[in-house]
Amino acid sequence: MTQDWDYLMKIRPISKIPEVALGKPIDFLDRWLKHENMDDFWNTMDWEKRSGGYQVPALIISGWFDDNGMGTTQALRLVKSWKPKTWKAIIGAWKHNGNAEYDLHHVYMGENALRYDIDLQCMLWLDRFVKEVHNGIEEGAPVEYYTLHENRWKTASTWPVSNHRVKLYLQDSDDKANGNTLTCGSGHLIENQPFKNGWSMYCYDPDNPASTSLMYQRMNWKFQKITFMKKKEKMFSPFQQIF
């Protein structure tokens, strides 16, 4: 057994990784790997498709830098048509581990980035909809979100917020946007068309993939470039890359 992730990530086929890392296979992983395409096996686990119109009270907690944020997007899309007071969303300047850090890769999120009532929110929600305790947790705005730079929590009745606007940023660089295996490149985001043409290349090598921590740095760095580019700009929705 080993915890050397650089070594483990190079093992092929990947079905052998558990045996090396843990000394035994993982049954559910073996079953997953037998279904490489979207089939009935995966459809049975698609909770968005299988919701069937049922409106189960949902408390959705996520962060701008959540690497599993696609689940949050699915959940918010699902509850959008639900009747009022059946769902609530809290979105902070957090990673997937939630309400845990003031600084993300040496960038300060603000003194109000962390909340001290998240556990209380969860307890009140469960008390209300499991124990039927009328504590008022479902009252008020269904969305609470944190805005960077303003260091302030805001509320909204819909998501995306009603006064939002979509803004396009273009990627540019100093000819070294791809970086290397240790550091990010010199890429940056701009609002107008670049003055010069050019290209940067990245060759993905499955036998030498980027580490999870480096991908996190690149993802968050890119996100921060959008968020902090102009102090007056307030970003309160995950960005989408278009190629």
Instruction: Return Rg in Å.
Output: 21 Å
Q: Approximately how much beta-strand content do the residues carry? A: 5-15%
Note poorly predicted spans.
Answer: 214-232
Tell me about the largest β-sheet.
4 strands, mixed
Tell me the structural class.
alpha/beta
User: Would you count the extended β strands for me?
Assistant: 8
Distance between the first and last residues' Cα: 41 Å
The gross shape turns out to be globular
Which key terms come to mind for this protein?
4-stranded mixed β-sheet; 243 residues; 25% helix; two-stranded antiparallel ribbon; alpha/beta; 13% strand
Give a structural overview.
- This protein is an alpha/beta fold and 243 residues long.
- Helices cover 25% and strands 13% of the residues.
- The strands form 3 sheets. A 4-stranded mixed β-sheet has the order 1-2-5-6, covered by helices on one side. It has a two-stranded antiparallel sheet with strand order 3-4.
- The radius of gyration is 21 Å and the shape is globular.
Summarize the structure.
The chain is an alpha/beta fold.
How would the blueprint of this fold be written?
Elements: H1 5-8, H2 17-22, H3 27-33, H4 40-43, E1 58-63, H5 69-79, E2 87-92, E3 103-104, E4 107-108, H6 118-129, E5 143-147, E6 152-156, E7 170-172, E8 188-190, H7 212-228
